[in-house]
Amino acid sequence: MPLGSRIGIVLLLAGLWPAAMQAQPREMALVTGSSTVFPFSRAVAEAVGRAAGGERVQVASTGTVHGFAQFCRGAGLGAPDVQDASRRITAGEFTLCLRNGVNEIMEIPIGFDGIVVAHRRGLPSPDFSLRQLWLGVARQVPQGGRMVANPFFNWRQISPALPDWPIRVIGPPPSSGTRDSFVELVMAASCAAAAEIRALPDAAERARACTALREDGAWIDAGEDDQVTIRRIVEGADGVLGIFGFSFLEAAQDRIEGAAIEGVDDTPETIAEGRYPLSRPLYLYVKRPNLDRVPALRDFLLEYASERALGREGYLARLGLVPPSATRLRMIQDTVRDRIIMLRRPG
């Protein structure tokens, strides 16, 4: 790929490409967003490149939140064509897209992932309830009929059934869709059941209390590179936990393993069936008009929706994606073939 083209793509993803250049056609399809989806999109991009005899798709790992900000920046060729997402687009993000003229969006659920709570292999593997995880990482917890600063610094303080480990959790940063999903599935769900939270009169105050993570060193924001988190788990003290997507656990299972959640282990089967409590779908969001403007984008979507990529025996499953059922795969292929767009604002 010519140096000038690479510089242009970097500037575009940073939002710095001049308007005159953004109006020009481009050969390269641009994908941004989730670090969890990144390995899958990169593998598809590499397959497209091999078939074409050269790089056709540029994939960047920026995090779901930042990715949507880039994707929704505009409808032309001066913004990414595809947004990888580890959660569904929010109503606010959808509104931002519409405000900026991005009003023909294809939503493609590509499969499933689980959020894992991983520790170094060889240690006793805990079984966390959602409430125990919340009590471990929340900034405020209920005690004595009111919300107080989190007093717990060892998991055994929360339950005698948990290991005698200091509470030290390396988790996804605010830019990550994995963090959004963790807050929704663990924090908000557990917090809402607390009488002390229900007693708070202000809805905004309840929301803040239910979503705020610790800032005293027990919770550590990682970057978007989950491989760094894995190294910190392996090289850190006993009991350091990391929170990230299942595919990264699969790729490093010789060094780390996941804790059970509510008595359910993280496996492809429990994630696909929804029995694992931290299961979630993964998505692609695509600007339909760009399919006619960027030929490489069509090739990228067709490859993504193929049996060889997304099927049960496909290469994405070997990378750790929990693939869709045969029926869901046919629906994905219909969406790609017919270029079906979202018709309803997400709830």
TrEMBL record:
Highest taxon of the lineage: Bacteria
Gene3D superfamilies: Periplasmic binding protein-like II
Domain annotation PBP: ranges: 23-307
Keyword entries, A-Z: Signal
Pfam families on file: PBP_like_2
PANTHER family: PERIPLASMIC PHOSPHATE BINDING COMPONENT OF PHOSPHATE ABC TRANSPORTER, PHOSPHATE-BINDING PROTEIN PSTS
Protein name in the entry: PBP domain-containing protein
Organism: Teichococcus deserti
